[in-house]
Amino acid sequence: MANKANKMMLxxxxxxxxxxxxxxxxxSAFRLTKIMIIDGEKxxxxxxxxxxxxxxxxxxxxxxxxxxMNLLAKSDTAYTIYLMPNxxxxxxxxxxxKVKNQxxxxxxxxxxxxxxxxxxYTEKNTYYVILKKRVDKTVADKIxxxxxxxxxxxxxxxxxxxxxxKRYYPNENLASVVLGFVGDDNQGLSGLExxxxxxxxxxxxxxxxxxxxxxxxxxxxxxxxxxAKQGNSxxxxxxxxxxxxxxxYLEQAVEANKASNRGACVIMNVNTGAVLAMAxxxxxxxxxxxVLSEADEALLSEExxxxxxxxxxxxxxxxxxxxxxxxxxxxxxxxxxxxxxxENVTNLEQHYNCGxxxxxxxxxxHCHKKGGHGALNFKEAMVGSCNPVFITVGxxxxxxxxxxxxxxxxxxxxxxxxxxxEAGSVYHKxxxxxxxxxxSSSFGQTFxxxxxxxxxxxxxxxxxxYLLKPYIVNKIVDSNGNIVxxxxxxxxxxxxxxxxxxxxxxxxxxxxxxxxxxxxxxGYEVGGKTGTSEKVAEMQASGERGLYxxxxxGFAPIDNPEIAVLxxxxxxRGDSHFGSTVAAPVAxxxxxxxxxxxxxxxxxxEEELKLFAIKxxxxVDKTVADxxxxxxxxxxxxxxxxxxxxxxxxxxxYGETISKGGRIIIxxxxxxxxxxxxxxxxxxxxxxxxASTAASNAGLNIKFSGNTTSSTxxxxxxxxxxxxxxxxxxxxxTVYFRESTTSD
Length: 744
Known about the structure:
This protein is 35% helix and 23% strand. With 744 residues, it is of the alpha+beta class.
């Protein structure tokens, strides 16, 4: 019995053990099946995360070029410095503290981070901490040197360097509001960088490499590299030289006229819609977009400052030419005249009478000229910018027809230029345009448009009547130079006839010839119209008086126009606020430099030839006698310094231009310096004759610029060398002239 009982017990134990084995095997098989088949992909992914280092490689953005393929924006190699603090935690306590202190000491010095902050990074419970983005090669090399010097501590296991890209603008402020800038992640934040962000952004690359237990790379063990692909590049219609000229004279005007709300200038080809330049001052350096100007910093530091840093930054980034609306003032008379001539409600010889005041529906309006213009025809009304005449013409056109042309000229919609943040116009709809709204609108007040809208509308008025879509990008090309997209000339509609356009050109030519002589350009036929608009709404809101926008729209050559130049100065606070004295001289200087650059040869009148600038000959290495005879033959005077027989140096140098009767200083000995320095006088307020005499008395050459032929007596208002500056005798000083007119 006992043996039988023992045998049964043994059988039971074996059955239990077998059951346990079967159960364990079944569970193990199920777990193995779940891990290998059901959760296999997930487990492989987790294993890869532990064993592989997977990182994206930033793709360089496409470049931006001007129309002549001069570089405006590019992406250079930069580096991201990062820390892997988790690996430090595996060290023994004593070494761990030593590594943390050494890392904090090094990166605080190299990356300009406070020691305490740098140390806090080493204690983070994470695999990856970015210490600094977009550092240049110099900084990255210092990090590499630091790691090499501390190889005994193995710091290379914890500090890494990733290659990335950094946006760079080689011309700094040039066209900054057009180009815009990018953020830390290389995403476009404003300007073309934002508008064309998807085209400029490349395809990121990828590096997959093995890593050890400390999280450090083991690239030679296993590595896969997918190369980054550069983004497409932009080729603009903007010409760097034209842009530079526009910015130079606009900046001078903003400073000279103490403009408190910046200024803008747009230059466009009237026959294609291509924007050749778009300038705004003050602007910013896109390499340092978050840095304010000294003036703005001073404004912020005032005890009762009413603006914030964010407001000032947004203001300097804002493209005034497309994002801000304003009342165009009398420049809009170009459009009123176009619709009136096209509808045959008037003609150039139609006679009117300006008695200074005009009443419309009980509202009184005044002419800018005290006492009025008296009897004049329509052409003369444009020259004199007579408000009563244009109000009369506007009433003849009527609200319905006025609204039709306002829309046809593209003023009720955005221009669709390829720039971000374009504003729409604010204007009187036809159903709400009564006699008084029509009266004020006819001379450019009580509605608001952008400078870009005015540019396209006025260009249509003079180019034969064709409203064009403006553009600023000529083409998009890929990294191999293949053209991806080309911008074509786009005609939206013909608004007025060639006959009307020709009549307008005749009127605008007369404006410059007989009226706004500050827009005159020696050797060229130009046309244009001034504008002086009151900022009524702003004055009512602030209680401040004397807020104006001074502007001028010019065209050249006016008989067959190619370019339009719009200059606007917002809130000038100098000695004048009229468009004719503030904005017209700026356009004149721009066109004076621009027209020869575009290949137009000047045709001077006899009066102009009296002031014609002569190119200084090369007299170096010639005998004194020969040099003197050559200079005198050109109508230039000579002063000889030294007793040598050969010319060793001359001033002005070869190639510069000076006026007839100017002086060349020739040096015949190397060490002769006596009596060669003079002080620049203040030419402000002088006539051409007076300035010429003052320059001669000071031993200087003078170069005349601006309106120098005015029969009413143009006077100097600026000079390119500051008063009382000590210069070498014979130096050329450019003096700018304008007529002190009060025309708007």
